Amino acid sequence: MNFLSPWFLLGAAAVAGPIVFHLIRRAARERVTFSSLMFLRPTPPRAVRRSKLEHIVLLLLRCICLLLLAAGFARPFFARDLLPPAQAQERRIILLVDASASMRREGLWQAAAAKAQDYLDKAAASDQIAVMAFDLQPRVLVSFADWNAWPESQRAGLARQRLATASPGWMGTHLGAALTGAAEQFRENSITRREIVLITDLQEGAKMDGLQGYSWPAGTLVKVERVEAKPQSDAGLEILEPAAVAAGMEDAIHVRVANAGDSRKEKFRLGWDGAKDSMEVYLTPGQTRTFTAPKPPAGLKSGALKLAGGDLSYGGVSYYAAPEIQRVAICCEGLGLPIDPSGMLYYLQRVFPGTPRRQIAFTPRLDPSANFAVIASNLPPDEIASWHTWLENGKTALLVLTGADSGPTLAGLLGWPDAQVTEAGGDFGLLGSIDFQHPIFAPFDDPRFSDFSQIHFWKRRRWEIPASAQARVLARFDDGSPALAQAPVKKGNLLVLASGWSPADSQLAVSSKFPPLMETMLDWSGAGAPARFQFRTGDAIPSPVLTGEPVHWQRPDGRRSTLAAGAAFTETDAPGVYKADFLGQQRLFAVNVPLEESRTAPISPDELARLGVPLKWDSEQAAASARIQQRRLQDTELENRQKLWRWLIAAALAITFVDIVLGGWLARRPAAADAKT
Fold it and tell me: For residue 364, what are the contacts with CB-CB under 8 A and spacing of at least 6?
């Protein structure tokens, strides 16, 4: 029997009342018949304490009455389970094991592998299990197809063997990509019970991109199994690219230092490997700051900057490759003198002033090593073939139509049989439409920068693009004629501008749009962007040359590989200095562990829940609460059906009536005895 309001059972303690009153009461010892009381003083009977109970039947009736009342108010009922029993469902489980650089700390990977093996050993016969490891990207070690294909008795053992082949690498942690990638494994099955067991150190440097707003497959739950490292002082550093520091300080080497939130130290020393000089760095736990590193040894081409005082082995060193001065050649044909404000070269030189990392050379003739050229004159027929061949090898040129006689040059560079160029009439022209999807105009695809309507073109030329030509118009004048177009020439490209930027032709050179527009053209040609020399593990290193002979790469461990010119090197899975040999030259690139991997302080799983991750703990609590609520509703329904409290109250009333009758009869017994006497 159960009770709907069991607290009323405390009222059963009231049975002590009748017992106390039966033990303590006022009563006369005996009655004596006496002839006259006029000479006696009245004295009330004394209360006496009895050592034994009288009228035990009355006492029992009164106690039972109180017990029945307490039980009635507690609303008893006979329990029956109306809820269907929970049935075991077939599950699909993904063991998602963190294999990023932060898991290289002492004991973490062994603990993570042990947790994964424990799940494999305890798997039910109906369970399907997949094993995945992740760092920047998830990768499958054991798929559901593998698990189902193996004999049931060998599944756990074979999965453990696959897991033993994995180990933590040097990559960063992208927790968002790992969880969403694992969830996508559930899209193509009908099993409703899906679990992701995330085994990780849950360090604060992990990326969470992609979690917020992600649509999780129905029935997916995520259980977090966090492994903990012993307390230590984790701090790391990262050498910054020169482009990431303030202008005018390119020669200084800047480094960003991060101290973990649970670190036990605040003072470190920063210095070059093998050098005696170092500097003291003070950084409170959880803080990240940028410092100017000590000056490297003279003539240093590559080296390692070390942070002494921390316990983190992989984060305390950052490899360095000295940036090379980039020399960019721009071929200029027919642009005038550099000191003539009425010519175009005068303004072009001021767009590309040169920096400590990039030197611009303007050559008045065709340079085979150059990637970009500006042509503003009619080329002799014997030179057009050389320029055309130069374009076919992957180069880019900007042809400025300076007159109606530019047709032969345009046709020869593009390989067309003929091209007609005429002078446009009218006082001036304006740009009417621009293709902001093209890389040249993409930086202007913002309402703040997309207005080109204030640039007046005093002189402009009309030319027709044949229907069979593979040309793309990037900008048009307000009369619909092409203002800027791109035409492919095999591997290369020719940009055709229908007006010049000299003051006699247009206002383009004095517009604020001119410098960024020319910079984007130079970058698009492949000659403008300064080469990067600092990379993170997992980044692709662009090829130092776009065309020509293959590039020979050497990893820090000495392994070599050869890639075609223009192909990026993607095997940057370890920190160190990488070498590229090409055309008799050698270029060095530094690859380092991401600084975020040094931020090893653990975060709470609640941060995942805040981003919308369906944690299993929260779901189990909600299911338990729902089942408790269903149980309460079931108990209330059973009690309303049975209504046992009515019978208990009726029994209490009946016993009360018997108590009254019996008590009256016992009270009349002494009076009847006296009457007989």
Answer: 331, 332, 333
Angle at 548 between CA 546 and CA 551, to 5 degrees: 75
Query: What angle is formed at CA 531 by the lines to CA 528 and CA 536, rounded to 5 degrees?
Result: 140
What pLDDT digit, counting tens, does each position of 176-198 carry?
Answer: 999 999 999 887 766 668 899 99
DSSP string, 187-250: TT---SEEEEEEEE--BTTSB-TT-TT--PPTTEEEEEEE--PPP---EEEEEPPGGGS-TT-T
Q: Is 632 helix (H, G, I), strand (E, B) or coil?
A: helix
End-to-end CA distance of the chain: 55
Residues 136, 172: contact at Cβ < 8 Å? yes
Burial 337-370 (b: 16+ CB within 10 A, else e): eeeeeebbbbbbbebbeeeebbebebeeebeeeb
Q: 163 near 115, Cβ under 8 Å?
A: no
Q: Cα separation of 404 and 461, whole Å?
A: 7
Task: Quote the strand ranges of 70-118, DSSP E.
Answer: 76-77, 91-98
Rounded Cα distance between 513 and 430, Å, is: 14
Residue burial 484-513, b: 16+ Cβ < 10 Å; e: rest? bbbbebeebbbbbbbbbbbbebbebbeeeb
Q: Is the confidence at residue 148, as pLDDT, over 70?
A: yes
Report yes or no on whether pTM surpasses 0.70: no
In angstroms, the CA 514 to CA 476 distance is 17
